[in-house]
Fold this sequence. Notes:
Strand content: under 5%
Radius of gyration: 14 Å
Distance between the termini: 28 Å
Number of domains: 1
Structural class: mainly alpha
Amino acid sequence: xxxxxxxxxxxxxxxxxxxxxxxxxxxxxxxxxxxxxxxxxxxxxxxxxxxxxxxxxxxxxxxxxxxxxxxxxxxxxxxxxxxxxxxxxxxxxxxxxxxxxxxxxxxxxxxxxxxxxxxxxxxxx
Length: 125
């Protein structure tokens, strides 16, 4: 595996750093995960784009489902982030308050990482 981040919480914390350093890109459709107007190696990214970049080490619009350690780690990190988002909608209304700027997304990733760590620590005790 190319990524030095071997669990979802490390991926989410690294994604928070990526967003803080390179910016947030609000996608206009599901595969619009990077802002390509700047033509740089580290484009501003969406939530999914930042997670994919951390895992794969380069921009990947949408990882292809395959039986690899990278894809498994990508899905675990996305699922951990979605678990955190669902806490913002405890009544199940379907109205989730997703972050809309770099600072909020970085904070959300860090909170999701903490939730993942707490849940996994509880499972090991």
